[in-house]
Amino acid sequence: MSGFFGWLNDQLLRMEWLSDLVAYLLAATGLDVATPIGSSIHFFVYDVIKIFILLSVLIFAISWVQSYFPPERTRRILGGYSGIGANIVGALLGTLTPFCSCSSIPLFIGFTAAGLPLGVTFSFLISSPLVDLASMILIASIFSWPIALTYIGVGLVLAVAGGTLIGKAGMENQVESFVYTVPVHDGEAALSRAERFRYARDQVTEIIHRVWPYILVGVGVGALIHNWIPETTITALLGQDKWWSVLVATVVGIPMYADIFGTLPIAEALVGKGVGLGTVLAFMMAVTALSLPSIIMLKRVIKMPLLILFLGIVTTGIIVIGYIFNSITHLF
Amino acid sequence: MIIKILGSGCKKCVTLGENALAAAKAAGKKAEIVEVTDFAQIAGYGVMSTPGLVIDEKLLSSGKVLTVQEIERLL
């Protein structure tokens, strides 16, 4: 039975047939995939096609689910919980929402205006770009299921813990005052099945349209690392025995604005070069959870002390997760 | 009347604007389209998911692209 699931996993998720097909086609054109150039081209073509196929299928499926959870409904559900339960539900609902940290700001305003506790809103806000079902399946495809599930697990813990800490800090007065005066509409659009289909289809075209450059750049950088940068250079900078590796990965990742889909091929190539799993996870989390554009937008709705607290908690959390993972890498 | 389309200027927003214009024309009203892309202003209407449709400062829908017929019924 596990043999069958293993086969399913290898062919459907890891798409080994595609890797073989690309290798076969390249060989037919006279390119030897054993050479660095051939291997780079193989990595690039295979990864690009695989990510686009997986992404289209995943976005469609997830958008369908998501169409049952419009922000108004999420807000109403969250309003029914209190204490840490609300933070946990907030983090979980965050996994169902859009892929980009930019779309979180209108949600932040809408949630806060409706009187949801700041800590709960931040649990949602941290989890929303960091963990979602699409990234879980992509990580499973590129790495493995244990790594994917652990990534989701620690992401959720970070969202719940970060939100709880922010809630405890009592910084409600550190939100720009206009946020509290925004009108609250509770009207929720009821969608028919045809509308859900249309919504899911539109999400696929819109998201692919937005992220394809990041994916090409990500896979390109991945292919470069994969075959052209010597392993010694990479491990000298980010090797597991270097105490600063997680710090560097996090600090480099924070200002970067990219989707997790563009980051994964880079992560894949880094792990292949002997970089620690924790370092790579910290890099992926830093890139997706925080970015310069989203920080600038957040600055317009919250004041400096709260912004610094938010950045501090998330950054510290990512670094801690990175070091923990590096020390337990042998378990995977 | 003034039709405001709340959104980042995405394809859906453009479609919604075209539909709203067509609906206004069918209803025999003169309409002007204003695109609101600033998220603080968008949130000011209480909208959490775009695109949003505001006609004469009244929020009619958010989070979906209405068809011409649907907008006509709302006018």
Task: Provide a brief overview of the structure.
The complex is a heterodimer of chains A (332) and B (75). With 332 residues, chain A is mostly helical. Chain A is built from 16 helices and no strands.
State mean pLDDT of chain B (0 to 100 scale). 85
Say which CATH homologous superfamily of chain B is assigned: Glutaredoxin
Q: Structural class given helices, strands, pairing of chain B?
A: alpha+beta
Oligomer: heterodimer
For the record, what CATH class of chain B applies? Alpha Beta
% residues in beta strands of chain B: 25-35%
User: How would you sum up the major sheet of chain B?
Assistant: 4 strands, mixed
How many strands in all of chain B? 4
Strand order of the largest sheet of chain B: 2-1-3-4
CATH architecture of chain B: 3-Layer(aba) Sandwich
Calculate Rg of chain A over CA atoms.
21 Å
What is the CATH third-level topology name of chain B?
Answer: Glutaredoxin
Tally of helical segments of chain A: 16
Please count the helical segments of chain B. 3
Largest chain interface and its two residue counts? A-B, 28 and 20 residues
How much strand content do the residues of chain A show? under 5%
> What's the number of domains of chain A?
1
Helix content of chain A: over 70%
CA distance, first residue to last residue of chain A: 22 Å
Uncertain spans of chain B = none
- Runs of chain A in which pLDDT lies below 50 for 5 or more consecutive residues are none
